[in-house]
Amino acid sequence: MSKADETPLAAIAVATDHSETAASAALWAAELAKKRGAKLFLVRAFDPSLPVLPVDGAVPMPPSLLTDLEDAARSQLTQTAMELEERVGIPVRPIFGVGSAARCIIDLAMENGAEVIVAGTRGLGGFTHALLGSTAERLVRYSPVPVITIHPDKIARCGNLKRILLPMDFSIHSHRAFEAARHVLGIQPNDGESSILLMHAYHLPIEFTSLASAVPILPSYIAEAAAAAQKNLQEVASTLRDQGYNVETVASEGYPPEVIVQEAKANNVGLIAMPTHGYRGIKHLLQGSIAERVSHTANCPVLTVWMGDE
Hints:
The chain is of the alpha/beta class. It has one domain: Rossmann fold (3-Layer(aba) Sandwich), CATH 3.40.50.12370. It has helices at residues 20-36, 65-88, 101-111, 126-132, 135-142, 172-185, 206-210, 217-242, 256-266, 281-287, 290-297, and strands at residues 11-15, 39-46, 92-98, 116-120, 147-150, 160-167, 195-202, 247-253, 269-278, 302-309. Helix 3 (101-111) packs across helix 5 (135-142) and helix 9 (256-266) runs parallel beside helix 11.
């Protein structure tokens, strides 16, 4: 991991659909913008595609309807930005785009130099989530710009933003997630405030854990797996400590998304930073993404860094 610099954060783009979820994310983003001296953009995507009702004799759509809807959406965005600016005390620039929500938000953020996108997530689960997905999920899955997802009902429970949890898979991807979090949050070595919790979740098959008492060799194998994980963590921690960071480590056995969320809650971290991959189609449906699952269930904001399509 490279040594930290003091490059300022240029701008934050926060996505809005004018819901309570989006409003909570906007307030969180505004506080971050104030702390980091960054510009704040309020981004709204208007998707002109309307459902076609398969009903004989349906009332034809008035020619001006889409134009009227777009004008109303622009006015709504301007009003929301003005109200947010008055509430948080910093300039808020509204940015409006037409197109598919996630793609449009990503394009607008990049065109305007935003270095992070903040979005609220409702945390859908089960089959509904598998079929419908969400704008926040698509941002996490495909945005080249780092994304921070916010649960509106969990903001009050967030800890210190200078205390972050960094799940490690010991690849360059985890290192990039740390660099993104360090830059976005303004984490500096030797500042006396920042702390990093490095963790690795290793998941053993059920046969290993449930039959450990029946097969004599298994307990030593499980212990060796834990020791290897801790050894690798200590190597990364040593590098960060040499750079002046306060670092702790933890290795836990279990299903990674659940273990990550549990450790974040138990250690009162302010943010989880981790990489994600753009799985598509049936591969995504079957395997999903650890980062997406953590984003939906974490007790604090989650910063994800896209590592490209798989």
